[in-house]
Amino acid sequence: MTPDHGPLLYEGKAKRVFCTNEEERLLVEFKNDATAFNALKRAELKDKGRLNCQISARLFERLEEANIPNHYLGLSGENWMMVKRVEIIPLEVVIRNVAAGSLCRESPIALGTKLIPELLDIYYKDDTLADPLLTEARLEILDLLSSQQRIDLGNLALKVNQCLKPFFEELGLLLVDFKLELGVDYSGQLVVADEISPDTCRLWDLDISDANDRILDKDRFRKDLGGVIEAYGEIFKRVQGVCTKPRNYK
Ligand code: UDP
Q1: Atom 21 in ligand 1: which residue has the minimum CA distance?
Q2: 195 lines ligand 1 (CB under 6 A)
Q3: Three-state SS string across 192-245, please?
Q4: Whose CA is nearest to atom 25 of ligand 1?
Q5: Ranges of each domain in the chain
Q6: What is the CATH number of domain 8-84?
Q7: Labelling 161: which of 57, 140, 180, 199 has CA 20 to 30 A away?
Q8: Which residue's CA lies nearest to atom 13 of ligand 1?
Q9: What is the pLDDT of residues 146-156, one digit of tens each?
Q10: pLDDT digit string (tens) for 96-154?
């Protein structure tokens, strides 16, 4: 069911963001579109929007319980979420517990290498530039963040990892890496925004050793492994087992 909403504010690859009758609230619709490799690869995956929305809602509620500020207010339908309006910082903040993906493509670090402590990589979010990896010096020149916000960003991302890594472990899942988008809310606070789902996290089944069979995230789509929705469904089933009912936004 589609909730009442105002005009479309923004449409991204996987979500649409709508205004509401309250200035400080936005409605996010999770779409079934899947994209990879800077949208060179595209598909429509039935039920992906609902699964990502439902998984994300539960993970945001976990963050909330851990006092980690985020934009989530509640669900407004199967694939709709009410969120706080924030100003998104154009960065992709990636935390890596285990080496995979671009880290292994762009360096000699082997797939599966444990990263202790976890690695924080910050990318500039711009499809036309293919989201380049930033250095601290480049980040400073870009002047997107105050020095305090730079410190807060790192601390926030680490806190999310400290919350979600053990949470997934209890569900038999290894949180390999994940991407966060951060925003600044009306009070100037840095908050976790966007989504946290198998589209934005790498999750491996801890009981499976085969390098492909263990994958339960968007890499199934990127690598043409099949069973994408089944994998997302498996993540949802496990997360739902411990977070039964996320709240509805009234
Ligand atoms: N990621 C994402 N959006 C992006 C790029 C990466 O959600 O535009 C996620 C990705 O799913 C993975 C983590 O961030 O969980 C690290 O991705 P990586 O840098 O390894 O890039 P990839 O191999 O996905 O291109």
Answers
A1: 102
A2: no
A3: EECCCCCCCEEEEECCCCCCCCCECCCHHHHCCCCCHHHHHHHHHHHHHHHCCC
A4: 102
A5: 8-84, 87-226
A6: 3.30.200.20
A7: 140
A8: 178
A9: 999 999 999 99
A10: 999 999 999 999 999 999 999 999 999 999 999 999 999 999 999 999 999 999 999 99
